[in-house]
Specification:
mainly alpha; single chain; 495 residues; 19 helices
Length: 495
């Protein structure tokens, strides 16, 4: 019965891809941004679903299971960051990217912000996107592989392959419109699942007291968590919210929304959806650790607690629907990441630096080839079943947040930002994150990321690099000032 539900889900996703193929793949603008005519409802759920991915149903409940209430601070940081993203970035990015020669990608916008001579900025940003998104995509494929292994007993590597084939298929067919529409459907499924599972799981206890007593056998109480909280730990958790400003697969949704006026509608829908789902994910992890302690069951991988609940507590037909929610979360993010990676590979590297200009149909074909290529590399990285979903996501999230977050904010709010400052900030942010993750510079060979979340030093140093170089760089850039002034004027008229 579960396989039937999963099969029906796959069919629906592919049908949406076929629908989008007929509607919006005539040129690159349609394929990559849906013609900038996406409704606020689809924008909100598409941004949310592509943001949360498999870590919402597997990684975050697993973090709550292992870390206890420390995971709540990550959730708070994410909610605040998402709200700030809607308020500070969404309306301005929608206008700025259109004024800047109708830019279709983030690297193209950064280049057009300073004129055609800023090709180095476009190239470096495209490389950063491809590198970190390949890592990010592999995290989604790991979630898919764990789902098939844990729920159906299917070989992990085969599960990774099946997940990739389905996502690549509808992304290749329908581009941005297919990704957005499937994200909308997937967002609805995720919403229902994260309400149903923790509520039904809680019914296995006589009340809050029994559940809390069982949970506290493994995790600290709220009071103990607060007493043991350090300033660095709190900053590291809340700093997850800083990542939103620099996530290309999320902010590209703001570029595609039909109007600036529609942003407020999307914000209200998106934040409501996010609040409910993130509370549901935390509740799943909390009830999960209580249930495991009460029953004495063995759970080798805490990130599979959602899957365990769906298998134990529900009818097989409902189980199939709930497992489809995990696939929905996984696929919504993978498809978005594949499309953004492919757009950078084709639009920002191949097409921009190629001597031969491709026509509309050939450009779409090249974009599809990019989707396929990035997917294959991500699959190879995901073949190791020991990978942690949350670990992979946290590294990629920090990389994007530090490399692009400060730069996006400065691009939208600072008239004095220069090309050299933008390039310096982006490189400093990306290099700092990589250094913090991999360089064993502390006592005992520990890395900086073992002490503080790497996005914190990355975001700070990137911001300082942009600010200081902007002060020192006296080169005038009339193009940058014109784009800023015209965008500000249009924004004041529309918003």
């Amino acid at each position: 019965m579960s396989f039937i539900s999963i099969g029906l889900y796959f069919v629906v996703m592919l049908c949406i891809g076929l629908f989008a193929y007929r509607k919006s793949t005539s040129d690159v603008s349609d394929y990559l941004l849906g013609g900038r005519n996406v409704s606020p409802q689809v924008t909100a759920l598409s941004a949310g679903a592509s943001d949360m991915s498999g870590w919402m149903l597997m990684g975050l409940p697993g973090a709550m299971f292992v870390m206890g209430f420390d995971a709540v601070f990550i959730a708070i940081g994410l909610v605040l960051g998402a709200l700030a993203n809607y308020l500070l970035v969404a309306p301005r990015l929608r206008v700025f990217t259109e004024v800047a020669s109708d830019s279709l990608t983030i690297p193209e916008f950064l280049s057009q912000r300073f004129g055609h001579k800023a090709s180095s900025l476009r190239l470096v940003s495209a490389i950063i996107i491809i590198v970190f998104f390949t890592l990010y995509t592999s995290a989604g494929l790991v979630a898919g592989g764990k789902l098939f292994d844990s729920a159906f007993g299917v070989d992990y590597q085969l599960g990774v392959l099946v997940t990739l084939v389905v996502v690549v298929s509808y992304t290749l067919l329908g581009g941005f419109l297919a990704v957005s529409l499937t994200d909308f459907v997937q967002g609805c499924i995720m919403f229902l699942a994260l309400v149903i599972v923790p509520v039904v799981a809680f019914q296995q206890f006589d009340g809050v007291g029994e559940m809390a007593d069982s949970a506290y056998q493994s995790i600290p109480t709220i009071a103990a968590t607060w007493e043991g909280l350090t300033l660095i730990g709190l900053i590291s958790s809340l700093a997850w919210g800083l990542g939103y400003f620099g996530q290309p697969h999320i902010i590209v949704r703001f570029m595609a929304i039909r109007s600036v006026a529609a942003v407020s509608v999307a914000r209200n829908i998106g934040m409501s959806w996010m609040t409910v789902t993130i509370v549901g994910a935390l509740a799943t992890g909390l009830v999960g650790v209580a249930y495991v302690n009460k029953t004495g069951m063995s759970l080798s991988d805490p990130e599979t607690i959602f899957i365990v609940f769906t298998d134990i507590l529900f009818h097989p037909l409902v189980t199939g629907f709930l497992l489809a929610a995990i696939l929905a979360a996984v696929m919504s993010t993978i498809s978005s990441q594949l499309l953004v990676s492919a757009s950078s590979l084709t639009e920002d590297i191949f097409s921009h630096f190629s001597k031969h200009k491709a026509d509309a149909k050939k450009a779409v074909l090249i974009s599809r080839a990019g989707v396929f290529g990035v997917g294959i590399v991500a699959m190879l990285l995901a073949l190791d079943s020991n990978n942690s979903i949350l670990g992979l996501v946290s590294n990629a999230w920090a990389g994007f947040g530090a490399a692009f977050g400060p730069l996006i904010l400065f691009s939208l709010y600072s008239e004095r930002l220069t090309h050299s400052a933008a390039l310096a900030g982006m490189i400093v942010g990306a290099v700092t994150v990589i250094f913090c993750i991999y360089a064993p510079v502390l006592n005992g060979g520990e890395t900086i990321s073992s002490v503080v979340y790497e996005i914190v030093p990355g975001f700070i140093l990137s911001s300082l690099a942009i600010w200081s170089v902007s002060l020192l760089d006296k080169s005038a850039n009339e193009r940058a000032r014109d784009v800023f002034k015209e965008s500000s004027r249009v924004l004041s008229e529309q918003y």
